[in-house]
Amino acid sequence: MRIFEKYAVKAGGGYNHRTNLSDGVLIKDNHIGAAGGVKEAVALARAYAPFVRKIEVEVENLAMLEEALAAEADIIMLDNMSDEDTEIAVKMVAGKAKIECSGNMSKERLQKLAAMGVDYISVGALTHSAPILDISLKNLKAI
User: Fold this and answer.
1) CB 54 within 8 Å of CB 82
2) Which CATH architecture does the domain made up of 24-128 adopt?
């Protein structure tokens, strides 16, 4: 049913940056841990992914951001960072990568983050917290 969720986002004026996990490479904390570090995880992803595929790294703090920049990640996702750390991060990135913010996004923060120079803002609640429509057909009655 994910296709319906994605369509609803599009119909509402949003943009889906991927339909499923195979549409991009997103390196998360568990991948970084398994690979032995950000640099190693990016190197493994680059060796596996086609040359046209962008590599995105999720970072939780400014130290991880430095590692992602050194590894030349294409996109850096600032996960659950404060507005203060996001402002510092944007200056650190200085155009070397695209910046995505995610985690606990609210309508109130969107304009503030965009004004800081963030390229993308992810709002997972658009798909995972929307009310559902029961299409199970369990309520059909014989006529």
Assistant:
1) no
2) Alpha-Beta Barrel (3.20)
Max Cα-Cα span within the chain: 67
Domain boundaries, the chain: 24-128
- What is the pLDDT at residue 21? 67
Q: Which residues contact 68 (CB under 8 A, 6 or more apart)?
A: 38, 42, 57, 59, 76, 97
Residue 102 contacts residue 77 (beta carbons within 8 Å): yes
- Asked if residue 26 lies in contact with residue 56, where contact means CB atoms within 8 angstroms, the answer is yes
Residues of the chain with pLDDT under 70: 21, 126-128, 130
For residue 106, what are its two tokens? 């609210």
Q: In the numeric block, which tokens belong to residue 110?
A: 């969107």
User: What are the residues whose beta carbons fall under 8 Å from the beta carbon of 46, sequence distance 6 or more?
Assistant: 55
Q: Give exposure, 20-41, as e/b (b: 16+ Cβ within 10 Å).
A: eeeebbbbeeebbeebeebbeb
Q: Is the pTM of this model over 0.70?
A: yes
Determine the pLDDT at residue 128. Answer: 67
